[in-house]
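From the shared-data thread, chain only:
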Amino acid sequence: MRTLSLRASAKVNLGLAVTGSLPDGYHSLDMLNFSVGISDRVSLRLRRDKKVLCFMNGRQCFAGNSAFEACRAFSERFGAPGADIRIQKGIPFGGGLGGSSADAAAVLGGMDILCPGADPGRLDELALSLGADVPFMMRGGFARVEGKGERISPLPPLPPLSAVILKSGRVQTKAAYRAFDEAPSFAPLPAQEILDALQRGDLTALRGRCFNALLPAARTLCPQVSENLALLWERADFASLSGSGSAVFGLFSDPEAAAAAFAELRGRAEWSALTAPVPEGVRVALHE
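Structure, as tokens:
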């Protein structure tokens, strides 16, 4: 097998707490993440040499692109050949939905299928070196993610729910953390209370318990965050920011209410989606 096509799922941060600053400039986090049915399509074809060619929506990408770097790093670390990569984006840029990390995760997972034999521990190290979200994006589902992103604890599936996601503007992750550091808030995430509410299927109980520590920074950097979040709070059982934004999401226990909200709001944001949780981060769509 030399060709593989994969679907790389976006993620939503149900909750995100910053628990400390690390000496290397990164932050220690405590997050509840879940994969959703919005995805990029990533196709890989092995080469006979070490060269990496990467195209996103038909445009060539070079060093610095997450998928390009993931392929090059895998090839160097495990002595694998290079690959031709084609990416069709379905996850918007700059939304906090993990699009770049999803592409890197798909490339690592795909290369591991095409060139089996990589040590799982070393593959996890490689994933983390490419980005804090990449280890989770490779696994997906619903999980608690701690530290830089290396400690992943899978959780039972979420109850049936629908999500409406709205994105306008763009927030740079580094800028969001710089703004956070100007007025840091290290409140812990009450993870068990959140999980108990989810087990009961009580999404409204997340209000006042579930939060994103980067929301004040995102509001400052992107005024549309507040506007879109207000629209969702009027309609959803619970609403919050994903990652560093600018995407915000509303959760609905009633799928008909979610569909009605999406129909009403889809024209009021630059990008929108009606979706639901999915059980995996990367899945094989086609192989030859």
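The two ends are 5 Å apart (CA to CA).
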